[in-house]
Every structure is written in C-alpha cells, then in structure tokens.
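Hi, here's the filled form for the chain we discussed.

Project: internal
Contact: R.S.
Residues: 249
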Amino acid sequence: MATWSNLRARISNRLARHLFVTPMQLKGGQPMVSFTFDDIPRSAATVGAPMLEEVGGRGTFYIAGGLINQPNNHCEGIDADGIIKLHRSGHEIACHTFSHQRAIDLDARAMAAEIAQNRSYLEGLDASIKLENFAYPYGLATVARKRQLTRSFRSARGILPGVNSGTIDLQFLRSTPLIDKDIDRAGVDRAFDEAVAAGGWLIFYTHDVADIPSPWGCTPGLLRHALEAAQRRNMPMVSVAEALRRAEA
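And the returned structure, exactly as it came back:
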C-alpha cells in the first residue's frame, strides 16, 4: 500500500509540473538567489540565518506549525521565540501546511483547514507575520491543490532542480537541494553559473545546518560556500517574497 501511495504521489507531482500553470515572465537582467529552509529545524534559525545575515542576505523559512518544538530522530525543531526572532530579523516566514501532510493526501477542505490553522498559529505569534508563499511538503504537488493555492499564496515551491528563468510557473517554482548528500561544492558552482547564464532566479532548499547534518540538511561549510559563490557573482541573496517583488518591478 505504501508503495502504491508513493507511486501515486510521484505521478501526481509529474502531472502538476505541466498542468494548470500560473505563468509569470521573469525579466532578464541581474540574476538572484534565494536560500530556503523547510520545516524547520532549530539549527536553520540559529546557524543558517546568522550566516545569511553576516553577508547581508535574508532567507525564506517554510514552517509547519505542527512541527514547532517537535524533535525527530535527527534534530530539534524550532520554538516559537525562534520564529519571532527570524521574522523580526527580516527573514520571510512562509507556509508549509500545519501538519506537514502531502498535498495528495489533502482534499480541498482539508488543505484549506491546514492553511488556516498554520496562518492562525504563525500570525498569532506576531500579527505582522503575513504568509505570502508556500512550499509543498515533501516537494510533491497536485494539479487540484495548485489551483487551490493560487487563491491563498503568491507562489508555491517544489523540489524539482533548476533555474527559474523566462516564463516560470508560480505554483511550481524550481529549487535545487543544498543538501550534502545530494550536491557538492562543484555542483553548487554549476547551479550559480547556470543562473548567471540565464539571468535567472536560483532557489536552494535545505533543512538543518549542522556539522553532522541530517539526510536532508547541509553543513555550515556547504552553506558558506554557496554564500561566497553568490558574493563572487554579485548576486542578491533575497527571500522568495522579495525576489517576486523585484521580478515584478
């Protein structure tokens, strides 16, 4: 049953790549990069965010309220104070549902309830938190939920690698893993070079930032390399919300 469920989710995600596209034309020009963190582990806020701030960058943190303060086998979850500090430091707080369920497992009513619960929780921490953008849990989208999410969010991000350039799908933004088991420093450099060549928008995603990262995280060294790569190319390091504002300017 689990195998069929996973296969169904992958097929649904593949269809979502091509159907019900919400197009946006990115203006050619200076490339930019967004560093995004999912779920989020405590170290994303205590290690990753300060590293971004040191070089003048800000990130997007896709948070599922139901994971707050919840440890797993690999790392500790962020607490409420950590979210408030991220927000007040200029980072974007974005939506990752409340209970971190796959889109394919949620009908329209359930997805609406997840969004409302997450929005209520996060805005309850600080009324100035406004959720503009979304990331699909596990990176898996569905056509039906793509359609629904357009009514609540400016964009939705997946985990399909690549540079966003030309005409992009706002409800299926491409993003490249900044995860030690999936990419090395040479791969990071190639991603930046592709973004420069295309004059596009590069999005990285990761989870924890630790000397011994989880299977979904990165070391401080890999993150530092990516930040320095952006600096060498004079690429602005901006949140997803800020990148979209710049693209529309």
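Let me know if anything looks off before we file it.
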